[in-house]
Amino acid sequence: MERYVGIIGLGLMGGSLGLAMQDWPGKTLLLGYDLDPQSAQKALERGAVNQLCPSAEAVTEASDLLFIAVPVRTVPEILFRIAPHLKPDTIVFDLASSREWILQETAALAPELNYAGFHPMCGKERGGIGEARGTLYRNAPILVTPQNPPHRIAEMARRVITFLGGKVFFYTLANTTWSVL
Questions:
Q1: What gap in Å lies between CA 169 and CA 171, rounded to an integer?
Q2: pLDDT tens-digit profile of 109-161?
Q3: Are 142 and 13 in contact (CB under 8 A)?
Q4: Furthest-apart CA pair in the chain: how many Å?
Q5: Do the beta carbons of residue 56 and residue 80 sit within 8 Å?
Q6: Could you tell me where the DSSP H helices lie in 8-126?
Q7: Residues 14-59: pLDDT tens digits?
Q8: R_g (Cα) of the chain, nearest Å
Q9: Do 145 and 100 meet the contact criterion of CB atoms below 8 Å apart?
Q10: CA quadruple 49, 52, 55, 61: dihedral sign
């Protein structure tokens, strides 16, 4: 089965994800977009993506699995912007850290999206594609919210996180319950 994986935001987190996902057997092509054309070009040159798209909407339209790796405050805006362009079965993960705020801001979209937060507990002192490393997620706890996402979303999160070498944690904000898998 062909599976196009898209990444919106090709800095440290998105670029590291792209570098790590290049050998993932679940993908056919890795697509990317960044607001900064120089960062996007550098991500392509470094091998973090196989192909650049001209917009977040274009990445979304082509992707079967989509990661949003942009600054926290822009995640809701991106989700609202791309929602009309999603294929019905596309799974969307965002790598942002502020779960409750994002879920509140995007509550109107919730019924329409195959979506979960996918927060890696890792990083570096400096950001940008130049700092990206394919090993960044290795041994990192990765929080997936909500705690009980639909089975296919949870299974996709497990598959990706296992491939990245991370540790899967399902988390819900309502009662601060953790589930480690």
A1: 6
A2: 877 789 988 999 888 888 999 999 999 999 999 999 875 578 889 999 999 99
A3: no
A4: 44
A5: no
A6: 12-21, 37-46, 56-62, 75-82, 99-105
A7: 999 999 999 999 888 999 999 999 999 999 999 999 999 999 999 9
A8: 15
A9: no
A10: negative
Contact 143, 134 (CB under 8 A): no
Two tokens, residue 133 = 């490393």
Nearest to 58 by CA among 88, 33, 27: 33
pTM for the predicted model, two decimal places: 0.92
Burial profile 110-140: b = 16 or more Cβ within 10 angstroms, e = fewer: eeebbbbbbbbebeeeeeebebbebebbeeb
Q: Which CATH architecture has domain 4-180?
A: 3-Layer(aba) Sandwich (3.40)
Domain limits, the chain: 4-180
Strand 91-94 vs strand 114-120: parallel, antiparallel, or unpaired?
Answer: parallel
Strand arrangement, sheet containing 91-94: 51-52, 29-33, 4-8, 65-68, 91-94, 114-120, 141-145, 167-172, 177-180
Distance CA 6, CA 66 (A): 5
